[in-house]
Amino acid sequence: MLWAMSVRAPTTTTAALDLLKLVWGYDAFRGVQAQIVQTVAGGGNALVLMPTGGGKSLCYQVPSLLRSGVGIVVSPLIALMKDQVDTLRGLGVRAAYLNSTLSLDGVREVEAALLNGELDLLYVAPERLLLPRTLDLLERAPLALFAVDEAHCVSQWGHDFRPEYQGLSVLPERFPQVPRLALTATADDRTRADILRVLDLGTAPQFVSSFDRPNIQYRVGQKDSPKTQLLDFIRAEHAGDAGIVYCLSRKSVEETAKWLQAQGVDAVAYHAGLPPRERTLAQDRFLNEEGLIVVATVAFGMGIDKPNVRFVAHLDLPKSMEGYYQETGRAGRDGLPSTAWMVYGLSDVVNVRRMLASSDAPEEVKRVEAGKLDALLTFCETAACRREVLLAYFGEDYHGPCGNCDTCLNPPQVRDMTREAQMALSAAIRTGNRFGAAHLTDVLLGRATERVVSMNHHTLPTFGVGTAHDEKTWRGVLRQLVSLGFLAAGEHHGLSATGKARTLLKGETTLTLRADTLIPRAAGRRAEKQPRAGRAPVTPEDQPLFEALRAWRLERARSLGVPPYVIFTDATLKGVTELKPTSHASLGTVSGVGQRKLADFGDEVVQIVRDSLDGRPAPVRPATPQERGARENSAVLGALRGRPLLESPAPPALLGDVAPDPARTEQVAAALRETRRAITQETGLSAFLIFPNAALDALAQRQPRTETDLHGIPGFGPKRIETYGAQVLAAVRAALTD
Ligand code: ADP
Ligand code: ZN
After folding, report:
1. Does residue 333's CB lie within 6 angstroms of at least one atom of ligand 1?
2. How far apart are CA 48 and CA 181, in angstroms?
3. Is 415 helix (H, G, I), strand (E, B) or coil?
C-alpha cells in the first residue's frame, strides 16, 4: 500500500503537505507549522507560542487527520466552537463539539460518533472535559492528540485565568500516551512555566514564533476632535469594512456609536452594561455581516475570531502595552492589510496617570501597572519605528524601519527641547506643583487670567517665558513630560515635578522631543505622505469582481446559517479575483480552495468569474428550501455520518450531463462509506487519507464501473486509484446489484 507507507515512513511532511493542499487548498506550511505538525504527528508533545493570526489551528488540525483516532481540542471559547466546527465541516472534516449549548440528545449523538470512530476532531469546553463521564468516554475512544488552545488560561498571572484549566493536569496523568499540544498567543515567562507544569510538558520542544504582525499598520496621532478624526479615517481608508472602535467608558461607547450612525456609518455599541440579548445581537451581527463597526469597551474581545476585521481604532489609551497589543491584534487575522489606529492627547495621559495613582490597589501592584503604562506612553511618544518599540517590549530584537507604521512612513522631526522642558517644569514647581496643564500654559504664555492674577502667578519669573511657542506646542511639551514621567498627575489634574525632573532642571540630561507638535498643522507634513493601509485588497479594476464575490459569499453564508468567512476567507476571494479562474482546475489552484470547497462552490464561483469577464453582473440566487434546512441542521447533525454539511444544491459539474438517480447515489455513497470505514480500521489511517468526502460524493454520483471511470474524480488521484481503486469498484458494483 504505497499511500499508507508514505504516511508511516519518516516523510510525515509529504503526507501533511498532501493533506494541506487537498483539504485546505494551501500550498505550504507557514514558518514553524511544518515542524510542529511533524513533531505532533510523530507522537511528541509541544508548546506553541504564536501570535493571533499566525496559524495555530493547522498545528493541531493537520496532525489530528494524520494520526488515527480523534483530535480533542480543549477551548474555553464556547461561542466560537460552532463556527470552528462549521468551518471544518465545510472542508469535509468530520468535526463536532461538546459544550453546554448542546441538548442531551445532541451530546449523546456526539458521544456515539466519538466511540464509533466517526470523528476527526472534537472541540470540548474544559469544564465538560473534566466531567468523569467525559473522561471515561475518552478512555474508551481512539485518541489522536489533545490540543489545549488558549493555554495561558491555566495561569493566574494573566487576565484570562480559568480555574478549570488547572484541572487539565488530568491529561498527562490519565492519558500519558496521547500527545499533548499547548497553544497560546500570550505567554510571558511565568505563564509559560505554568503551562509546562500543568500539562507536564517538561522536555517538550517549544516553538516560539515572532510576535510581529507585519500586515498591521500601526498609527498613533494627536487627538484634537476625536470623533471627526475617526470618521475621516474610516471614510478615507475603511469605508464598508468591519472594524472595532475601543473607548474607555460605557458613556463614550454609546455616544460614539450614536454619532457614527448619524453620520451614516453602520455601527453598533457593545459594553458590559448592556442587556445580554443586545450584546449577543451585536456580536452575532459583527460575525455575520460584512462591514459592521462595533464601538466597544474592552469587554468586547476574547472570543472575537472574525478573520477580516480591517481596523482597530482606539479613541482612548489602553492600560498597557499588553492591552494595546491584544486589542490591535484583533485586526487582520487573515493576513491582509489592516490598520491599528489611535489618537490621544494630554488630558488622556493625565487621566490614566491619575487613575492609576488614586487607585487603592496595593503599592506593589500599582508599581507594576505604572511600569506597564510608562511603556505604552513611551510607545506613543516615540519618534522611532513603532514596531521596533512594540516588539522590544515583548523582548524581541526587531530592527526597523518596518515601513508600515506612521513614524516609518512619515518620520517626525525631533528637536532638542531641553530648554522648553525646563521652563515647563519650573512653571509647575513655582506654582506649587498643583496646577493643571491649562493654568501652566497660561503662565508660560504670560496670560494674566483672573486665576493667574488671583494666585499672584503673574509676578513669577516664569510668567511669559514661553511666548516663542503657541499653546498647542506647550500642551505637546507638557504631554510628553507627563508621558515620560518628568511630571506626575495628581488630584484635580494637578501636575507636579517628579524626582526624575531634577536632572533635567540641573541640565544634567537633555531632552529630545518629537517636533510634530511644534509644527502648525496647516504647514506641517501631514498632507505629504499620509500612510494608508488601503481598504480594498484588490486593484480598482478588480473591485467589481471582488464585490460580486463578497455579495455571493454573504448570500451563501446566510442561506447556510454560517458566517461568511466559513465559506471563503477574504484572502481566498482576493486570490480568485486576481486569477479569474474559469474552470474547476484553475480555481483549485487558488490558495484556500480545497477539494471540498471546489465541489461545493466551484460552479458558482466560476460562473461569477465568467459573468464578470463577460461584463454581466452576477445574479445572487435566493436560498432554496433545502439550504434553509441545512442551516437548521448545522448544529451537530448530518456531517457526523460523513455527509457533507454545506450541501451544494446542484451536483458538481465535473460529472458530465447524466443526471444520477438520487436513491442510487445514496446507496452507493453508503457502500463507499462502509468500505472506507473498513479500510480505516484495517490501516489505522484517518478516513481523510483514504479518500476525502468530496471524492466520496463524486464517486457516488459517477458510479464508476471500470478503472477508466475512476479517472478525473477530484480527490481520487492516481495514487488512490492504485491503492483503493479495486475496493471502490467492488463496493459500487455490490451496491448497484443489491
Ligand atoms: P490563530 O489561531 O493562530 O490566530 P488561525 O489558525 O486562525 O490563526 O489562522 C489564521 C489565518 O491564516 C486563517 O485564515 C488560516 O486559514 C490562515 N493560514 C494558516 N496557516 C496557513 C498556511 N499554511 N497557508 C495559508 N493560510 C494559512
Ligand atoms: Zn515602523
Report:
1. yes
2. 7
3. strand
Share in percent of the chain as helix, strand, coil (round to 5):
50, 10, 40
Residue 485: predicted pLDDT: 85
State the Cα–Cα distance between residues 538 and 649, nearest whole angstrom: 30
Which parts of 43-161 fold into alpha helices (H)? 56-66, 78-90, 104-115, 126-129, 132-140
Q: Hey, which residues does 415 pair with through a beta bridge?
A: 513
Whole-number Å distance, alpha carbon 33 to ligand 1 midpoint, is: 10
Q: Are 257 and 268 in contact (CB under 8 A)?
A: yes
- Are the C-beta atoms of 601 and 568 separated by less than 8 Å? yes
Render pLDDT for 210-238 as a digit per residue (tens, 0 to 9).
999 999 999 999 998 999 999 999 999 99
Cβ atoms of 134 and 98 closer than 8 Å: yes
Nearest CA to ligand 1 atom 13: 334
What's the confidence (pLDDT) of residue 677? 84
For residue range 392-450, list pLDDT tens digits in order: 888 888 998 999 999 999 888 888 989 999 999 999 999 999 998 989 999 999 999 99
pLDDT tens string 448-488? 999 999 999 999 999 999 999 998 889 889 988 988 889 98
Whole-number Å distance between alpha carbons of 68 and 79: 28
Q: Report how far residue 381's alpha carbon sits from residue 370's, in angstroms, rounded to the nearest whole number.
A: 16
Q: Which three cell numbers stand for residue 630?
A: 441545512
Residue 574 is predicted with a pLDDT of 94
Atom of ligand 1 nearest to the CA of 565: 14
Domains, the chain, ranges and CATH? 31-208 (3.40.50.300), 216-408 (3.40.50.300), 414-529 (1.10.10.10), 540-641 (1.10.150.80), 655-737 (1.10.150.80)
CA–CA separation, 110 vs 651, rounded Å? Answer: 28
Determine the distance separating the centroid of ligand 2 and the alpha carbon of 334, expressed in angstroms: 21
591 Cα nearest atom in ligand 1: 25
Stretches in the chain below the pLDDT threshold 50: 1-10, 517-534, 622-623, 625-658
- 317 alpha carbon, distance to own chain's centre: 21
Q: Checking DSSP bridges between strand 206-208 and strand 216-222, what pairing results, if any?
A: unpaired
Nearest-atom number in ligand 1 for the CA of 185 is: 3
Taking every pair of C-alpha atoms in the chain, what is the biggest distance, in angstroms? 109
